[in-house]
Amino acid sequence: MPKWVDILLIPLINLALALFVSGLVVAYIGENPFEAVAILVKGAVGSPYGWGYTLYYTTNFIFTGLAVAVAFHARLFNIGGEGQAGLGGLGVALVLLALPWPHWSIALLAAMVGAMAFGAFWAAIPAYLLAKRGSHIVITTIMFNFIASALLVYLLVNVIKVQGSMSPETARFGVSLPNANDVLPWVGFPRSTPLNVTFLVSLVACFAVWALIWRTRLGYEIRAYGHSEPAALYAGISPVRIIMVTMLISGGLSGLMAINAVMGEAERLVLDPVQGAGFVGIAVALMGRSHPVGVFLAALLFGMLYQGGAELEFERPAITREMIVVIQALVILFTGALDNMVRAPVERFFVNMNKRAA
Amino acid sequence: MDLLGVLQILDSTVRMATPLLLACLAGLFSERAGIFDIGLEGKMLMAAFFAAAFAAFTGNVWIGLLAAIVASLSLSLLHGLASITFRGNQLISGVAINFLAAGVTVVIGQAWFDLGGRTPALEGAGRFQEVTLPFADTLAATPVLGPIYAELISGHSPLVYVALALVPLSWWVLFRTRFGLRLRAVGENPAAVDTAGVSVVALRFYAVGICGILCGIAGAYLATGLAAGFVKDMSAGRGFIALAALIFAKWRPWYALYACLLFGFLEAIGNRFQSIELLGVAVPSQFMQALPYILTVVILAGFVGKAVPPRAGGEPYVKER
To answer: In angstroms, rounded to a whole number, what is the distance separating the alpha carbons of residues B199 and B34?
Structure first.
């Protein structure tokens, strides 16, 4: 089977199936699916305002998608991005509230360290339990999502809330990241869009993950372990080390998502700062075939869906925001779970073609 | 706290434990047959919506229950299609089902009722009524035993008794029948079952189907027994707590009952008190909410007894050629 079929054709067929079924749902609730797509696309990329939000969401999903993708390379399913990103938000808030930061660039670097450290820490416990005690990583990371959520609620309500304030949120940070309007004034992003320099950080992260997985010894070991644990063991690769290191990187990437949402957008820690982005990362990584380029494209698609979906709900109130969750579910279903349904016939088709050609 | 207060908490424990128990037994059948199911949450949610919707349409809670079972069963078949027929990843399929239910229930709910994803409030025959067991009223005056019988044992919705009856029934089916033996074998060593001439695919589909029916009852109880109608995301992580209970119970029916009662008790306490004093330390309610998850992690880590899942769990069966 040619390579382009594997990395391009099959994901596109899967995506088309997911969108087709979504279209059926839209038609069922009595709206025109083609009109819906037109509104969605126009809302997402039809104006600098739309782009500002689309790329803001894209930034979130790049981080959480990369986090899931890195773990997939070691055949670890890190479903705990939601909790790791939440803890990352806590790290960001603690760092930014600890000192009066003189300049945003220094604050950004410090906050990144905080976000990665807290995110990695939250991934480290399930990783350790898998590596040393054999606990199933999917179950433990799910449990850690709930524990993280309870922990954040507790801290926000009882510990780090502003004294005397009713709402469970921290004080505003003293620094704010440059908005897209500051960086690229000639494009005309409105001030109100939350797009900020974190987008550039996410692009750097894409490149860094590519370099790590395909250009370093560690990346090779991660992939080797993912392909076959016995073979990796035979080659002298320590499973404990690979599981720990991979999950630390994965958790750190999830944590970085908080830079965008907590430092870049909200500028304070609020309840549920992650808003489901950790779960979108699963769909993004599956669609992107765990490759940074694919993750970027899939994140952009989901960014468009999130922003366009908001516009769609505004124009057509019958199509609620949850329609995006349906599309997300169908993408995960078709690209992840039902992949063989498409793959097997396509493979057969190309094998027959080759036979005939030969 | 007086006897009545204690009884009220225990009564609430039974109510809270019921959906957990049903979902937990559902997971038990599926996972014992080697199909991991993290989609219990989604199936319950879908069932809760359809139960409430059809009970609202027809005013008959039994039709609601039937609709719930059909809805949950179709998601189960989707899970079976993905993970048995097409040998996809069972965990990914489960994740997809959870999102599908979270989205579809609100999208369709908005289209049907236009109430922001809720269903109309159910009343009368649209809900499961409390069953008063014989002599509950006459015996209520008896000291101690009377209130226990009247308050705690009597006066629940029929599905509570169904859930409790399913515990011994599940045990009997899994450990005392030929079907149960085969079902457990297919979760441990499917190749052996295949060699014996029994269809692995059919057995796993049966297991997934039973799982769907039980999740359907669990969801129906949520929307038409515990509450009076559907609200968005009303399963609120119960599917995952049921999963936790299943691990806590080490995939055994009687232990599942104890685990669900324990987690139901934690929920009942958490609902009643904002924070509780324990040995002079104030325990925050968030800690009570997180406790089932923390306990599960501890159990999974094998610090307190080792939880070993069915050996072939999570792996699609490929016949050797």
So the answer is: 14
- Between CA A337 and CA B38 the distance in angstroms is 13
Whats the size of chain A, residue-wise? 358
* Rounded-to-5 percentages of helix, strand, coil across chain A: 75, 0, 20
Number of CB pairs, chain A paired with chain B, less than 8 A apart: 151
Q: What gap in Å lies between CA B109 and CA B128, rounded to an integer?
A: 21
Q: In degrees to the nearest 10, what's the CA dihedral of B182, B185, B191, B193? A: -20
Q: Which tens digit of pLDDT belongs to each residue from A126-146?
A: 999 999 988 889 889 999 999
A135:B297 CB<8 A: yes
For residue B111, give the chain A residue with the closest CA.
A29
Do B267 and B260 contact (CB within 8 A), yes or no?
A: no
Report the alpha-carbon distance of residue A327 to residue A284 in Å, rounded.
12
Question: Contacts of residue A153 in chain B, CB cutoff 8 Å?
Answer: 286
The count of other CB atoms within 10 Å of the CB of residue A345 is: 11
A179 forms beta bridges with A196
Report how far Cα B42 is from the mean position of its chain's Cα atoms: 11
Query: Where is B281: in which H helix or E strand?
Result: strand B281-284
**Contact of B244 with B293, CB cutoff 8 Å:** yes
Residues B273-292 have pLDDT tens digits of: 766 777 677 788 888 888 88
Instruction: Delimit the domains of chain B by residue range.
Output: 3-239
A71, A229, A285, A305, B227 from A234: Cα distances, Å: 21, 9, 29, 45, 56
ipTM, two decimals: 0.90
Residues with Cβ within 8 Å of B232's Cβ and at least 6 positions away in sequence, in order, are B105, B106, B109, B116, B117, B118
How far does the CA of residue A65 sit from the closest CA of chain B (Å)? 15
d(C-alpha A269, C-alpha B310), whole Å? 42
Residue carrying the six token digits 């505004």: A314
